[in-house]
Amino acid sequence: MRTPKTSLLLLLTSAAWLLASHPASAVSSGWESNPQSRVRLITPWNVAPRDGEVRLGLHFTLAPGWHVYWKNSGDAGFPPVVVFGKTPGLAGTDLLWPAPERFELRGGLVAFGYANEVAYPVRAMLRGAAGDRLRLSADVDYLVCEVDCVPYRYTLTADQPLGGAPVPDPETRPLIEAWWGRLPAASWPGVETEGLLVSGGAGGVPVLEVRVRGARLGAGSPGLFLEAHDAFDTGRPEARTTDGGVVFRVPLKPHEAGKPLPGATAFAWTATGLIRDGQPFSLEARRTVPLRTTDRAVDSSAERHSAGGPMLDPVLGALLAVAATLAALGLWGVLTGASGAAARPRREALGFVAAALILAALWGMSHQVSFVGLAGIELALLAMSLFSWLRRRTGSRRFLSFLLAVGIVASAATAPWLAHRNRLASSPAASSDRSD
Amino acid sequence: MRSHRFLTILLLLLGLIAATAASATAVGETAPAFQLKGADGKTYSLADYKGKAVVLEWVNPNCPFSDRHAREHTMSELHKKYGDVVWLGINSTSSGSRDYLKPSETLAYNQKNGIHYPVLYDETGRVGHAYDAKTTPHMFIVDPQGKLAYIGAIDDDPSGRKAKTERVNYVDGGLTAEKAGRKIDPAATKPYGCSVKY
After folding, report:
1. In chain B, fewer beta carbons within 10 Å around the N or the C end?
2. Nearest to A326 by CA among A380, A394, A398
């Protein structure tokens, strides 16, 4: 038989557990859980007003390594789809998209989205909601991916108390506000954005150039995320700081070959990793962008950085890597003079080391090497093996001297381009450019 | 002199390898040629189908999207509907991936789901990269002249929420247009699904 004291203790313990697992103050749908993620619908109010804008949140927590998607999922996946049920008094529910991250996938593919946690803001309008409760209901379809992907579908429901005097929820309101704060701004004081579609540059690949005047690149990785486009696939963006601000350049791949580009094309993008007056921010824009058919003289510095399209880059990269290798091997051949059968293995080994040092120096300059860069290095290693064989067959000092000159000039002329080209994401220091 | 010639050939070869590895595809371009072995052990070459429309479907039975369409018979019904169209599944999943299926497993899967078209093995990803295949499924229609006529999604319903009859099936529409001699519209859409497991 339980004593009154024991019963009271049991009651208090049960109440504490219930409070811990389902905080009474939070208005939310309760979690829907699976091994990769959990999701719930949250509101910022214990008691919501009957009229006005309401900020809701679709709150995900994700297992380590898993992500959900931005409105443009990137090369694979798809963004969450939310369909709100009809609730009298509730109208205009819009799912909004905080600034995303970029995820590198196998095979050179990319995805855009959120890892660990995200509360997608949802904007809704309350207009004369009757009664003392608002029944919220949302059908959610989403895809969560790591290497594998798993789709889920849930119906989330929550009862929102209504009243004349709104009462904020201390748990969910800060969370919703924090994610609301990560929405890209439509404008920023002192900052102007413009876009330009540049065609006819090196490689013949159209490039979207987005200039954000009045901003600098922040400490994190800058990014330009384009919304899905009917006419183009987008390549890897580059960012650099100029005197006037930040310039993002994105190579575009037309969906249809040989189709002339129109005089103006609509694009929508989010630029992230920006900073002004010490304040970090992201900026979104929707612009009808004019076409500029140009030659390299119009913006020589920009064109220099974008030299080569998807087809040309690896070719140039491979040729440059071969040139660097030739320089290293040629240099060693000249320095060591006449070939002797006994000394050959040592010379060749040192030649390999010299070539590796040149490539390592290029890698060091580039901070992070892209897949194209890695392909170039691999091709260089192949070239080293073949050249080693070739060198044994020639033994011509004059020929080696010629290769030395060609290799050194080519390497010196192209090292900055190669470093810029192969960078995964620009850092402010590395991408500083005073040519604007 | 001979060495110079060798060096030139070497450089051109390296350039060619690099260019091939980065092949980009767009509607209107010639579909990259390939020769691949099927799960049935036979060798299939795109060149063998010149003069016929060909549908290429990137597949991965372990991807929930490919699997859903297999279970819903989305592709197999189209394959049956357009009997004169060649339909080839291509699996570019790397043999090191946990999604990889052995040919015998693929045959069993196809049997179970009523898939009667060949599924080709591209474990190196060479053909997948040549087509710039990104998702499973990712659909390509090659016209009888060997040009790419459609690239993109199978339909407009990534989540599978819509009833089958309510979906816009782009490949169905594309093949109908192709048969009627009309240009496929839309000729390109954004594919959805799992990333190809290169």
Report:
1. N
2. A380
Integer Cα distance of A415 and A378 in angstroms: 17
- Distance of alpha carbon A433 from alpha carbon A365, whole angstroms: 15
Q: Of A78, A258, A396, which is closest to B192 when you measure between CB atoms?
A: A78
Phi and psi (nearest 5°) for A289? -100, 130
CA A320 to centroid of chain Cα atoms: 28
Give pTM, 2 decimals.
Answer: 0.72
Q: Pairing mode, if any, of strands A90-95 and A117-126?
A: antiparallel
Contacts of B187 in chain A (CB under 8 A): 255-256
Q: Which residue has the tokens 């939070």?
A: A26
Residues 120-159 of B with CB under 8 A from A: 125, 128-129, 132, 134-135, 151, 158-159
Q: Is there a cis peptide before residue B158, judged by omega within 30 degrees of 0? A: no
Is the C-alpha dihedral spanning A323, A324, A326, A331 positive or negative?
positive
Radius of gyration of chain A from Cα atoms? 29
Determine contact: A392 vs chain B, CB below 8 A.
no
Query: What DSSP string describes A168-206?
Result: E-TTHHHHHHHHHTTSPBS-BTTBEEEEEEEESSGGG--
Structure tokens at A321: 């890597």
Q: Do B194 and A145 touch (CB under 8 A)?
A: yes
Q: Quote ipTM for the complex.
A: 0.84
DSSP string, A275-288: EETTEEEEEEEEEE
Asked if A239 and A426 count as a contact pair (C-beta separation under 8 A), the reply is yes
Contact A228, A430 (CB under 8 A): no
The DSSP secondary-structure symbol of B50 reads T
Q: Inspect the interface and report whether the beta carbons of A255 and B188 lie closer than 8 Å.
A: yes
